[in-house]
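In response to reviewer comment 3 from the previous cycle, which asked for concrete evidence that the modeling workflow produces usable outputs, we include below a single protein chain processed end to end. The sequence was submitted unchanged, and the resulting structure tokens are shown without manual editing.
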Amino acid sequence: MSEKDIQILRGLADQLAELSALPIQKVRKQQWFDLNARKVNKPMFLMGEFPWNEMNGDGELTLSCEDPFYQELELDIRRLLYRNKHINDDWVYEPVIYVPKVIRGLNQGLEIVEETISRDDGNVVQAHSYQCQIETMEDIAKIKVPDFIYDEEATNRREAMAKEALGGILKVVMDGPEFEYRPWDHFMEWIGPEVLYDKMLEDEDWIHALMRRTLDVHLETICKLRDMDLLNRQRQLVHCTGAWTDLLPEDPVKPELKDLWTYGMAQILYTVSPAMHNAYEFEYASEWYEKFGLGYYGCCEPLDDRMEYVKKIRGIHKISVSAWVKDFEGIAEAMEGKYVYSNKPAPAFVAAPTWNPATARKDLETRLNAAQKYNCPMEFTLKDISTICYQPQRLTEWSQIMREVIG
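The workflow returned the following structure tokens.
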């Protein structure tokens, strides 16, 4: 263990611990508790999925540690400190570091075969072209419960190194993988849109067999993770939104599914009819969500014309209101104040060649007014930020506008 690396990490950990001790953290956490209990109170907001490669103009994100694992810890802490200084959203800073347990082979039987194109070096947003691996009824059997391996020795080594480096300044929580329910994203990666759309039109039995197999594999896999005490313990985020809640038990020794948040989506299905979306997604999704404590549904797909089906999914607590929703008031009315109105403003406002704060403000005000008109608890999440044109101050300005809009 490098003494130099340890001193770097302890210096950063001291800053995070000091930040975590500020009174505002308790205030914010209670505000998230209220929101996630669906109380109509202060709207909350977060940002996520940053183009970090465009945000290090002053070197604040430059790594100094030499050990690869310590670089992981350093990166996590530096990003949190950067977030506090420049983003100023409603993140709750806590004296905790979540360290992934080492698990190998969690791939549901299929590896992704693809070609990618990147916008620029270091940007995780890419264009993908996938090779179709499932086309016949027999091919569906390729989807199977993964025979994954939990490397306890490597996990224990990471835990020991983290605790040594952080010196008790921050709590180290060894965490399982995030395992959500988004089968249609996987189908895009395993099959591709052309085959999927043809099958939806021409072979209903094939689609239902695909869905049944995939759901069963998901359920068996998550139960296997639970039985091995490998569930994801992270209690700060659910799909980039605030997950802080007092509706679920805090720090269970060995969490059950009912102790956890889950989330899912079916983004490709926004182009099909609400009835087809229901038959191929919503009717299956209930079997997943009903096993968990709280659920978040949706991502970029607009759901305003199919809320009658979304509301039938058992266990849904928050519903995504994406950038492509056409009727903000209609979806707010449909929620009846029973769900968190989870706004996802368009990241295009901060990604355009010319930054226009007035346009961003108008979008936020429209969303706010729609949710308030129908007495919905609400949050805002700016995510999927592919670029900010190497102008990180745009995010700072967006945050300031957001604060002014919500008051």
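Residues 3-406 form a domain with the TIM Barrel fold (CATH 3.20.20.210). We consider this sufficient to address the reviewer's concern, and the full set will be provided in the supplementary archive.
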